[in-house]
Amino acid sequence: MAMHLTLGGSFIRRNFGLVFGGIWLVVGIPFAIGGYFMWQSEQRFAAAAVNTEGKVLTRDIRTARSRSSSGGSSTSTEYWVSYRFQPSNGIPHEGSSKVDVHLWERLQEQGPVTVSYLPNNPTSNRVAGKPDWVGPAIMTGLGGVFALAGGTIVVFSLGKRLSRARLLRVGMSAEAVVTAVEPTSFSINRVPQWVVRYRYNDHRGRTHEGKSPYLAPQEAQEWKEGNTGKVKYDRERSDKSLWLGN
Q1: Which of 79, 122, 147, 217 has the fewest CB atoms within 10 Å, measured from its CB?
Q2: What 3-state DSSP class applies to 27?
């Protein structure tokens, strides 16, 4: 599957893992935290709420619109009930709740409805029913997955950066022969990025293969199969190399 990013091209090529992983991390952490606090709020409400009988004021059907990751949108039907109830402090309150379709069909306008509310804060109320654990669980789960994946990518990318810095500093130099110049499925600003594949011999005469980091098309097209370029490799692990080019 092709991947497209639209930030500064050279910046992304140098920091692809950090950018990609960082985006997942930034998206995942708030989702996970938000889901956790939603779960805590549901737990507190379930533990402290009391029930009383109220009166149904209206029954509504609403259309909810949500956006998908591909940029499209989808619609769903939501069932809402508004009601009036009188908590123990004697001051009537009104509220509204989204309910499932089965409960919505059973309720009638001006008919009774059981309302749950917090005694110390009656404005926090809803139609009585099971706590909503699904929403918090989904948010926390998705956020956790994104944050874990993003954090793993960031850590891996930092490791690669340190490895490249070490190769630049103490790596052994070698001449590499270009074996292929080819596009990848990764794009920056809708421009496919390329890589140069190469072969080199280490100080023991063993042959290894490697590939360059992502290159812009104009950079990659400076190289042809059979050209020679410079690489640096790890003396202890000769299969680890870094493409330097000219």
Answers
A1: 217
A2: helix
13: in domain: yes
Work out whether the CA dihedral 91, 96, 100, 102 comes out positive or negative: positive
Residue 62 has pLDDT above 80, yes or no: yes
pLDDT tens-digit map of 194-213: 999 999 999 999 999 999 98
Q: Name the pTM for this structure.
A: 0.56
10: CB partners within 8 A, 6+ apart: 216
Q: Are residues 34 and 121 in the same domain?
A: yes
Q: What share of the chain is helix, strand, coil (3-state, %, to 5)?
A: 35, 40, 25
Q: Phi and psi of 155, rounded to 5°?
A: -65, -45
For 9-120, strand residue ranges (E) read: 50-67, 73-85, 93-99, 112-118
**How many residues are present in the chain?**
246
CB atoms within 10 A of CB 198: 26
- What residue spans of the chain are helical by DSSP H? 9-48, 101-106, 134-170, 217-220
**Separation CA 111–CA 124 (nearest Å):** 21
Domain count, the chain: 2
- Whether residue 145 lies inside any domain: the answer is no
Which range marks the domain in which residue 108 is found?
3-138
25 lies in the same domain as 132: yes
Q: Which among 13, 88, 78 has a CA at the least distance from the CA of 50? A: 88
Nearest to 148 by CA among 4, 32, 1, 5: 32
CB atoms within 10 A of CB 16: 20
Decide: 23 and 150 in contact? Cβ < 8 Å.
yes
